[in-house]
Request: fold
Amino acid sequence: MSLGAYVLGALTEEGDRLVAEHLRACDRCTADYLDLSEAANLLTLIDEADLAAGKGPSGGGEAGGEGPSASPVTT
Reply:
């Protein structure tokens, strides 16, 4: 199952339906979906200038620190 593609709205109509159906029955995947949705929403707060400057949405890099994350998120 591709939760990342589901969160970004990149699945076909059939794929979207299948993932939504699975999420209704699977608490673990639903928790993962909520985490991915939150991350995707936070990414919308970063613009090109922030990326060029190495800054996150708060303007100061990682939450509680400076610089890029040591562990990238993959789905």
About this structure: Residues 61-75 have pLDDT under 50 and may be disordered. The two ends are 10 Å apart (CA to CA).
